[in-house]
Design brief:
233 residues, alpha+beta, 3-stranded antiparallel beta sheet
Length: 233
């Protein structure tokens, strides 16, 4: 899904990832390029995110992941059909178009879980840095561990002038959100990278070139050209 950011008249930046449905304004849908073109006609400053721009590049690992997800769903559906045959002794005809559409639908639901898990974690870390995450929260221990790693590697205590979920727009036409930023002396720009489940956490296979591009673009967009950058997995 494409993401967009708008610079307001007061200089602040706000995400514009969603717009209201025309028929049901109380509901939102993802922002499309046609929506952005309308905003441009209103002389609004709206730009695509770093990741939206980087998505024009071919990513073999991502393509393979999507193929695997579709095949997993196809296997699941086929297995259910085989079980039905064994139980009833008959195999109903399968309409190819319906089968393909159903596999796409199920796969889309499954793939949506990964970014949702990432968003949930970002929200938890934002609360942890602000001191508003209760220790009774089931994920407090994980967030504390991440915070301690950041303190150890940067030498800057959590809560000491760190800014979380900081929006930015670069003068050269892109925007984004920095997960956690320290803009003081010896500045830092840090992004979190998550996996949906623990069994998928494989540090040696989780680093991609676009991670470095995102950090470099974020540092520039934040006006912290000499900030040190890091991903926390």
């Amino acid at each position: 899904m494409a993401h967009y950011y708008e610079k307001l008249a007061d200089g602040t930046v706000q995400p514009r990832h969603f717009v209201p449905l025309v028929s049901r304004p109380e509901e939102l849908r993802p922002t499309r390029i046609n929506d952005v073109k309308k905003m441009w006609k209103e002389n609004r400053i709206v730009v695509p995110s770093v990741t939206t721009i980087l998505n024009v590049l071919a990513k073999d690992a991502l393509i393979n992941w999507k193929i695997d997800k579709h095949l997993e769903q196809a296997h699941r559906v086929a297995s259910a059909r085989i079980a039905e045959v064994r139980a009833n002794g008959s195999f109903p005809d399968i309409d190819l178009d319906r089968f393909i559409n159903e596999i796409k639908r199920l796969t889309e639901i499954e793939m949506d879980k990964a970014p949702s898990a990432g968003s949930d974690f970002h929200s938890l870390m934002e609360k942890y840095f602000s001191g508003s995450l209760p220790e009774t929260n089931g994920y407090y221990g994980l967030c504390k561990n991440v915070g301690e790693v950041i303190e150890e590697r940067t030498g800057i205590p959590v809560g000491h002038m760190w800014e979380t979920e900081k929006y930015f727009i670069s003068d050269i036409g892109y925007g984004g959100t920095a997960d956690v930023v320290y803009a003081g002396q010896n500045a830092w720009d840090i992004d979190y990278k998550t996996k949906q489940t623990a069994d998928k956490f494989k540090p040696g296979k989780m680093v991609y070139d676009d991670h470095l591009m995102q950090l470099a673009a974020g540092r520039k967009g934040l006006g912290l050209d000499k900030a040190r950058c890091a991903n926390v997995f």
